[in-house]
């Protein structure tokens, strides 16, 4: 069974081995400190605790997964949140990524389409004392307009395109980190930087494999 130190070592190693793609030989000390502090074993499904510090995704029920620690760390680093920032996350899932962000940002707003998962995540935040995370059950394609604008937006499921409302709800100068591509096909981790005027800047970081950000047709089966 691995421990948290091994998980951090694995993240460092994978950061180095992907540096030629990401341009990052190391992640920020603040991100690594947050990865050390949040107890991942509290976010995995019952019985999965022995695998909580493996550098891989794990099932959390409802056909969903808690993302791989390296990907969580990389996306957090790419987002570059500051302690005063308001961050929007789409795809609460277990709440692990939200918890990491809660240590690095001011307020975290997180939207999850599967109600059971958002209820479980909210209970976890309450139990573990993460007081600056706000959870909503809803369709992430629409963002969370009532709380906009955001300093940064992070999407933790793969969308076939970048949903327009997420760009609209981002402040100029803010970043959107999102895996884009069809489910079970080639997906790319994209960083969009919103410009005050003119075209937004787009950077492709790395090939990734995420569960899909389900669209309205698929949403029907959850409601
Ligand atoms: N950030 C999560 C990873 C969750 S996996 C974690 O740290 O555990 C992606 C999540 O996105 C799943 O829970 C899935 O239910 C959710 N999701 C899929 N489509 C969505 C949509 N349209 N709106 C909001 N959430 C969605």
TrEMBL record:
Subcellular location: Cytoplasm
GO cellular component terms attached to this protein's record: cytoplasm
Active site (record annotation): 67
EC number: 2.1.1.77
Reaction equations catalysed: [protein]-L-isoaspartate + S-adenosyl-L-methionine = [protein]-L-isoaspartate alpha-methyl ester + S-adenosyl-L-homocysteine
Pfam families in the cross-refs: PCMT
InterPro entries according to UniProt: PCMT, SAM-dependent_MTases_sf
Record keywords: Cytoplasm, Methyltransferase, S-adenosyl-L-methionine, Transferase
Gene Ontology BP terms: methylation; protein repair
Main location: cytoplasm
NCBIfam families per UniProt: pimt, PRK00312.1
Family: Belongs to the methyltransferase superfamily. L-isoaspartyl/D-aspartyl protein methyltransferase family.
UniProt function note: Catalyzes the methyl esterification of L-isoaspartyl residues in peptides and proteins that result from spontaneous decomposition of normal L-aspartyl and L-asparaginyl residues. It plays a role in the repair and/or degradation of damaged proteins.
Identification of the protein by name: Protein-L-isoaspartate O-methyltransferase
